[in-house]
Amino acid sequence: MSDALLPVYDRDLVLVKGKGARLWDSAGHEWLDFAAGIAVNGLGYGDRKVVSAIKKQADLLIHASNLYHTEPGSELARRLVSLAFPSKVFFCNSGTEAWEGAMKFARRIGHEAGRTGYVCFEHSFHGRTMGSVSTTWTAKYREPFEPLVPGVRFCPLNDLAAAADAVDERTAAVMVEPVQGEGGIRPAAPEFLRGLEDLCRQRGALLVFDEIQCGLGRTGRMFAYEHSGVTPDILTLAKPLAGGLPMGAVLVREDLAPAIKVGDHGSTFGGNPVAAAAALAVLDRLTAPGFLDDVGAKGLYLTRGLRRLAKKHKGAVVDVRGMGLMIGVELSGPAAPVVKGLRERGILAVKSGEKVLRLLPPLVVKRSEMKRLLDALGEVLAGGAGSRFGPRNDKKESGT
Hints:
The structure is a single chain. The chain is α/β, with parallel strands linked by helices. It folds into 2 domains: 15-33 and 289-399, Aspartate Aminotransferase, domain 1; 48-286, Aspartate Aminotransferase, domain 2, CATH 3.40.640.10. It is built from 12 helices and 17 strands. It has helices spanning 36-39, 48-60, 71-83, 95-109, 130-134, 139-142, 160-166, 190-203, 273-286, 291-312, 336-344, 367-381, and strands at residues 15-19, 22-25, 30-33, 87-92, 117-121, 152-155, 171-176, 179-180, 186-187, 206-210, 234-237, 248-253, 317-323, 326-331, 347-348, 350-352, 356-359. Helix 2 (48-60) runs antiparallel to helix 9 (273-286), helix 3 packs parallel to helix 9 (273-286) and helix 10 packs parallel to helix 12.
């Protein structure tokens, strides 16, 4: 659309409007979105309460310096603490920024003991800034930007013995995604997370959870850590937090927070009152009676459907895994042709690595929409031809 943009993305669609789990492009074609802005649009598009909260707050106050409090920011911090664990909250603008904050806070807390190292895991992804990419496992993301932050060690996920070998007196934090996103939708085993918790307590390291993609309802619980019963020392959140507006958060365990001093970190736009107002509306929806139970039920419906397809197409599908509405379909070959085949049928999805189809529909996705995805994926796996726009996808916006 514009040759003025730096070409760091491979994109062609021009999207102009969304409602629920559907999007429309500039040509008026309808798309079913099973990527949700890569897990950002948890409530889909055009949620009335989120839009209303944004409009109301924009009329009052759009920005104020973090030298002062705002009512939405203060209330959002209180709500997050009440939903998570006794902690202090730092607001920023993205998942990567939240992770950078967690890295700094871990070092600050361990400063007196000389703890500067990080233990991370194979297939991890934590962002693309210099600190976060240092803790990201995939070589193609790291190597062009070396030298990076020193002191990072990688271990296989779900291998507690390897983690025990890596954690020593110099380790500031063990940093892990309860469910790896970019790395192939790989859940950490509950017993592994419990083992990491014990290991960190024994050796004085902090336990940091990256729930930027898997948190805030995506797995059928408010936080993914709830599935294991493990409470981290530091928790990072972002993607769906503010309903599509830029916002990230770092929660630091309350008894550790005094180590963080005035001036240790900051963010010009962090905790923006409009984004905070949107986030409060998101939390209202997530905490509504039955909402997360319904997410879990939808995830079970979709997973079962995908496993039936896997059984039918044994040669094409290696595994179906995930939690809630965060599901990976590992394929025997590249995922790109499957993503393309779905797109030819009017469905947007993304890869996770080279061989995993990543499905992250809005949490408000309908069962009829999940059935449409299952039918389309079955056609793709069977090698059927697909039109550029499927029969339900050539409607103009006025007809929907």
